[in-house]
Amino acid sequence: MRLQNKGDRVSCTTSCGIRRRGILVAGAVLMAGASPSMHAQAADFPTRPIQLVVAAPAGGPSDAVARMLAEDMAKVLGQSVIVDNKPGAGGAIAADAVARAAPDGHTLMLSWIGNATNQTLLPRQALDINRDFVHITQVVSGANVLVARPGVAGSLKELLSLAKAQPGKLSYASAGNGSSGHLAMEMLKQRAGVSLVHIPYRGGAPALNDLLGGQVDLMFLNQDAVMPYVRSGRLVALAISGSARNAQLAEVPTVAESGFPGFEATAWAGLSAPRGTPEAVVQRLHAAALKVLQGPFRAKQEAIGAQVVGSGPSQYAAFVRSETDKWAAVIKTAGIRPD
Question: If we measure between CA atoms, which residue out of 178, 153, 154, 149 comes closest to residue 163?
Answer without folding.
Answer: 153
